[in-house]
Amino acid sequence: xxxxxxxxxxxxxxxxxxxxxxxxxxKTIESYQKExxxxxxxxxxxxxxxYRNGDSVAQDYAKAREWFxxxxxxxxxxxxxMLGNMYxxxxxxxxxxxxxxxxxxxxxxxxxxxxxxxxxxMYxxxxxxxxxxxxxxxxxxxxxxxxxPSxxxxxxxxxxxxxxxxxxxxAxxxxxxxxxxxxxxxxxxxxxxxxxxxxxxxxxxxx
Length: 207
Description:
Layout: H1 6-13, H2 29-37, H3 41-53, H4 61-73, H5 77-89, H6 97-109, H7 113-125, H8 133-145, H9 149-161, H10 170-182, H11 196-206
Helix pairs in contact: 2-3, 3-4, 4-5, 5-6, 6-7, 7-8, 8-9, 9-10, 10-11
């Protein structure tokens, strides 16, 4: 089977799920199918997204899962995360948090921030696993370092309130709130500040 080089995988990862082709001429479903038939994991992932979102085809979770499965089996990290999402949400398959975690872990060890964020949430809340504050913080940290704004916000809250065994540290809380703001989740950064105007000045200054 044709394996996908990391650079190509990274390119696909950075394209919005809702529009895989925003930075290049549109490909037809037939083009993706032709490439997927040759074992291209990016094309398999793209078809999974198309069928999951009903983009240019009728929405079909079963077909989406099938294509994500093919891509994930080749080691495509984002496809592994999407497959985990489908098992977690029961989309096209019976809901199975154990399988969701299995696929998230495969993606997370490859460095996929979305999978790392999901694992952080699941260990924090005991979703399908025993609650484990240490693992939750570790996964949030990994995702945050990669620039995931939701993970950065979560760390900010932990340092601000002393959650999950994280010691209270206002300076670190502000640092992570600022990073989250500059990564696109500006609304969250209002929490450390007394009013909206103060937050806006802070957020504008950090970017």
